[in-house]
Design a protein that fits this description.
With 115 residues, the protein is mostly beta strands. The protein has a domain of 63 residues: SH3 type barrels, CATH 2.30.30.30. It contains no helices and five strands. The chain has a five-stranded antiparallel beta sheet, with no helix packed on it.
Length: 115
């Protein structure tokens, strides 16, 4: 006859002995985790004053923030976006709420060389 199986005993979970967090002082502001994302609900409305070919400045955060660009096409979706080409020749999709219209590109006068 084979021997009886022993009962398996598992160690108690580490969270079982964890103490309760200390109560916060009433005057302390609520702690906000640094990884929390805030969503701009106005972004869903987009901007209606933009059209293809307009020169815009990219606002908000990101790689091309503050750079001038030209709108190449609009991308539909829940949050309206536009595909823009920066002056450096890079393309990027940007929310239309992050685009600020700027005037047309200044015209440079070309002078003929004297001689």
């Amino acid at each position: 006859m084979p021997p009886r199986k022993r009962k398996v005993s598992y160690p108690p979970p580490r969270t079982a002995t964890r103490q309760a967090p200390p109560p916060g002082v009433a005057g302390d502001p609520a702690y906000i985790r640094p990884t929390v994302v805030s969503i701009n609900l106005d972004a869903a409305s987009g901007r209606s004053d933009l059209k293809i070919g307009d020169r815009v400045r990219i606002n908000g955060g990101g790689l091309y923030s503050g750079e001038a660009a030209t709108i190449e096409k609009f991308a539909g979706g829940v949050i309206p976006a536009a595909v823009v080409r920066t002056e450096a020749g890079k393309t990027r999709q940007v929310r239309t709420i992050d685009l600020e219209p700027i005037g047309p590109e200044p015209v440079r006068e070309v002078t003929a060389p004297e001689g």
